[in-house]
Design goal:
By secondary structure, the chain is an alpha+beta fold. The chain is 34% helix and 27% strand. The protein starts with 6 loop residues before the first strand and ends in a 5-residue tail after the last helix.
Length: 215
């Protein structure tokens, strides 16, 4: 279970000419298109989120793209699914959870992911190197639960939910997907999450009451 292991947040930069989204962008000739996010879906496929100008939308007709949003004068937000590339699959096959993949320039992409243990991190880097990639480690830090009013499980669930985009709008991961990544059932995830949020709110408003100088 992910919650019972030491969790590390990793950010690496990789030159990845195999990226499926960059391949599609090049094939369609879409200008000013950006890779925003990469996610593993529960069924095993990889979901790519891309953004491109509204006037480029005709280039994607007939493609298996799901248009998520469009409005006059703004960009199109769309997603599509693939079986992933060697970089994504190397990260995900080791039990890591991919938070995001963001395109920089050329074939350079920054990947953020969470790994259950330092050994898993080393295995991922070693695997990428053996495949001919040259991952540049931008950051690596271990999540250390703070001693306080939250239980360790509550803090880990809240930290992971925050990192994985559960509180983003729109959400990058839903309850079922996050619970599966954590190795727990959705009802257990919801119970731990609600308990942790309740304690945070109680602590926040208790603090506000104690420091209120208006009475």
């Amino acid at each position: 279970m992910l919650l019972e292991q030491a969790l590390y947040h990793v950010t690496i930069e990789v030159e990845n000419p195999q990226c499926k989204s960059l391949e599609l962008i090049s094939k369609l000739g879409i200008n000013n298109c950006r890779l925003i996010d990469v996610r593993r879906l529960p069924g095993g496929s990889v979901k790519h989120l891309i953004s491109f100008p509204l006037n480029e939308v005709d280039k994607v007709s007939g493609e298996k793209l799901k248009i998520l949003s469009r409005s006059k004068g703004s960009n199109i937000l769309a997603s599509f699914e693939t079986d992933g590339c060697n970089v994504c699959n190397s990260i995900l096959s080791k039990g890591a959870f991919l938070i995001s993949g963001k395109h920089l320039e050329g074939y350079k992409i920054i990947y953020e992911f969470i790994v259950p243990g330092h050994e898993v991190f080393k295995e991922i880097i070693s695997t990428l190197e053996s495949l001919g990639f040259k991952p540049k480690i931008l950051s690596l830090y271990k999540h250390e639960p703070k001693e306080g009013f939250l239980t360790e499980k509550q803090e880990n669930v809240l930290w992971l939910a925050l990192k994985m985009g559960y509180f983003d709008y729109p959400r990058k991961v839903n309850t079922k997907e996050l619970a599966k990544a954590l190795g727990i059932v959705p009802s257990t995830f919801s119970e731990i999450l609600r308990g942790g949020i309740r304690k945070l709110l109680e602590k926040y408003f208790e603090s506000k009451t104690l420091t209120n100088k208006d009475f």
